[in-house]
């Protein structure tokens, strides 16, 4: 057992060395709390900022070959990180992964780096009078995280606008997948099965009046502010929408609004959200999730499935 731990430590050190040589910023035992919107969780064994595809490809295949656990963190807005942290390498995309550029002459086909926030991309679309991304205004993720999750709101989703996605596979090869190959459905993409790291996303938008785009963005943001507990740390809706129901509605009907375990609480404003009311631990949130699932299943006969991703 101890030699296995030594092996993992040696292999993590090798990946960290290689990353540093490629100019990546590496942080050992870095708390992931500050990289998630829930503000919960322990440390990553190493957090590595990667600035270009070559480095990402080499480091990702190295992790696969050496059996070093690794994953990419976006804006951490859909994550619940274990109190014990993550025992491997966490990659954060920076540098070229934050570029946005038009792909064709019409300017409506846009290539966006996966590490940029949806907020920045929405602003770019607005500034260039391009419509199609208004639904994403207020979703606090990155473009990579949004493609991975097929994020959506107010009748729109990433699936409606994605033309193709470039990614790096665990063996380090670079691939471009077209829309049909992405298997985009409700909060799902092929990347949860193929473990590809999304490097950029190509999106088809439509020309429209800047004022109208702005009005739609404002309308969606106002609806969020009224309905969502944005004043507290959270990871958004905890559960997927069960067929024929709303998770928040079921939770409210079971009298669970305001229910708390430790520092975690079912939001009084939106029962589909769990908020970090006061120094909640991952265990608090997990116990509250289980309590909600058990109660809703017993009282309503509906199984609630988690939308948020658990990291451990
Ligand atoms: C207040 C609030 C409101 C929200 N509202 C919405 C909403 O309206 N609609 C909605 O769909 N979601 C919503 N969310 C959830 C969340 O913002 C989305 O799921 C978002 O797309 C996650 O993006 P991220 O960059 O934060 O990903 P993260 O949370 O960092 O990661 C999520 C998953 O994506 C993977 N991932 C991230 N980047 C990459 C990459 N480049 N390559 C491969 N895998 C990657 C991660 O490994 C992880 O498995 C909300 C969250 C909050 C806190």
Helical fraction:
25-40%
Compute the CA-based radius of gyration: 20 Å
What is the count of distinct domains?
3
Q: Class by helix and strand content?
A: alpha+beta
Question: Helices and strands, in N-to-C order?
Answer: HEEHEEEEEHEHEEEEHEEHEHEEEHE
Mean pLDDT reading: 97
Poorly predicted parts: none
Strand content: 25-35%
Work out the number of β strands.
Answer: 19
- Small molecules (ligands, ions, cofactors) in the structure: flavin-adenine dinucleotide
Side by side, the strands of the main sheet go 6-7-13-11-12
Q: Please count the helical segments.
A: 8
In the CATH hierarchy, the third-tier topology of the largest domain is known as Uridine Diphospho-n-acetylenolpyruvylglucosamine Reductase, domain 3
CATH architecture of the largest domain: 2-Layer Sandwich
Shape: globular
- First and last CA, distance: 19 Å
Can you describe this structure?
With 312 residues, this protein is α+β, with helices and mostly antiparallel strands. The protein has three domains: 92 residues, 2-Layer Sandwich (Uridine Diphospho-n-acetylenolpyruvylglucosamine Reductase, domain 2); 116 residues, 2-Layer Sandwich (Uridine Diphospho-n-acetylenolpyruvylglucosamine Reductase, domain 3); 83 residues, Alpha-Beta Complex (Uridine Diphospho-n-acetylenolpyruvylglucosamine Reductase, domain 1), CATH 3.90.78. It is built from eight helices and 19 strands. Strand 17 and strand 18 form a beta hairpin. Helix 1 runs antiparallel to helix 2. It is globular. The model has no long low-confidence stretch (mean pLDDT 97). The site of flavin-adenine dinucleotide has 33 residues, from strand 3, helix 4, strand 9, strand 13 and strand 15. The site of flavin-adenine dinucleotide (FAD) has 33 residues, from strand 3, helix 4, strand 9, strand 13 and strand 15.
